Amino acid sequence: MIYMDYNATTPVHPEVLEAFLPFYRHHFGNPSSIHWAGRPAKGAVEAAREQVAALVHCDPAEVVFTSCGSEADNLALKGVAAAQRHRGKQIITTSVEHPAVLNTCLYLEREGYEITRLEVDRDGMLDLDRLEAAITGQTILISAMYANNETGTIFPVREIGAIAARHRVYFHCDAVQAAGRLPIDCREQQIGLLALSGHKLQAPKGVGALIVRKGVKLHPLLHGGSQERNRRAGTENVAGIVGFGKACEIARGSMVSEAERLQGLRDRLQDGILANVANVQVHGHPAWRLPNTLNLSFLGVEADSLLLNLDLQGIAVSSGSACSSGTLKSSPVLAAMGVAPAVAKGSLRFSLGRENSEAEVDHVLQVLPGIVERLRGV
Ligand SMILES: *Cc1c(COP(=O)(O)O)cnc(C)c1O
Description:
The chain is α/β, with parallel strands linked by helices. The chain has 13 helices and 13 strands.
């Protein structure tokens, strides 16, 4: 079995599993309890907070644990919108955001906010001049992702942060795909809010975080107890948080070498496909792209047929984004990049990770051309 769908989710790292299992087996206490059962849980949550903060360069007190990346995006957008509505009602975002941002913005639009969606070019890249020109006296927030989940295109986050700071507008960055793959520095990049998700970086599902920098005002989504400094009520997912912290620590140590290794594998896969299959189009920026991601269209082929045929060979990849599969609509991200629907229909995403090897890439290169040829024949 070959798994090349790491942008959809990742297997839990064995050391992460070891780190969090004791919090199911023994340390069951509630972190809010001050007795012997609660104290180890509280200590572990605070240690994990430091590990997460160290990965993205912020203060541990700025980490708000959530249930997933989607909740972090919702908290950032709805939380800021509610807290800042007296200042203005305009939110600037991009046309290629993850549904967690896209659909939250649609919701806010129905609630009376003005959403400005910036276009991207053929590589999925944002134009900074257009971003700056879109800012008005009514702008309260810029929401732009760090790296795209479908194509891997990386936005110029440092420059976006500088523009936001210059105009005194909050900057929310969905860094779910970038965290653990690219260096992130909330301080240097002037990021006000940053969304993270555990299961995209080898931690378990059901945990995420929103970094809320000091001075950023937002209303909570969940009201209740005073957990997470009143920014997210609810008893903490202690084991998940512990695993998330451990995964961040592992990523911090291995990110640079792993990115280099994965880029080597990704480029081998891309070059091999381009050399052996005709009429293929690569999507995403040629240089500013996540090292593990390869999105390409096989012209004249239905991506889902290709996906199912690869699945029969034990190879797991994705067509469009996992979040929009099950529907026959082609990817809004590729559409925003100006990719024709007929081309987008044949788009497949390979996203690599820790367990992939050169032998696996070569195996894919062995079986893929034959499948494409067969599908093009029918
Ligand atoms: C997966 C993903 C999310 C959502 O994270 P969940 O933890 O699955 O809710 C948000 N943004 C991006 C870019 C993603 O890839």
